[in-house]
Amino acid sequence: MISVLAQERLLGAALGSILTGMVIFEHRKSIYKSISDNKPQAREPIFGRKSRQEFAHIWNKSVDKTLGPIIQSLSSRGW
Asked: CA-CA distance, 78 to 72, in Å (whole number)?
């Protein structure tokens, strides 16, 4: 037979495990909820479509201007 002291320890361990599990579950649930609440905001574009197109055009022009001489040099050598 299990002594009363051992039964009390087992009961305390079981209740402590259940309480800890419930606390962890609630914390995870609140974390997942806060993440899912922020998801729609993260999907919104920072810039409008026109601004992104203008930025892409300016970026491409600057890359062409910067790397153009290197590309011409490599092309003339047959690369």
From this structure: 10
Using an 8 Å Cβ cutoff, are 52 and 45 in contact?
yes
Domain that holds residue 37: 1-44
Positive or negative CA dihedral for 23, 28, 33, 38?
positive
Rounded distance between C-alpha atoms, residue 79 and residue 72, angstroms: 10
Q: How far apart, in Å, do the first and last CA atoms of the chain sit? A: 87
Same-domain pairing of 10 and 28 = yes
Tens digit of each residue's pLDDT (9 = 90 or more) over 36-54: 766 555 555 666 777 888 8
In this structure, are 35 and 70 located in the same domain?
Answer: no
**How many independent structural domains does the chain possess?**
2
pTM: 0.42
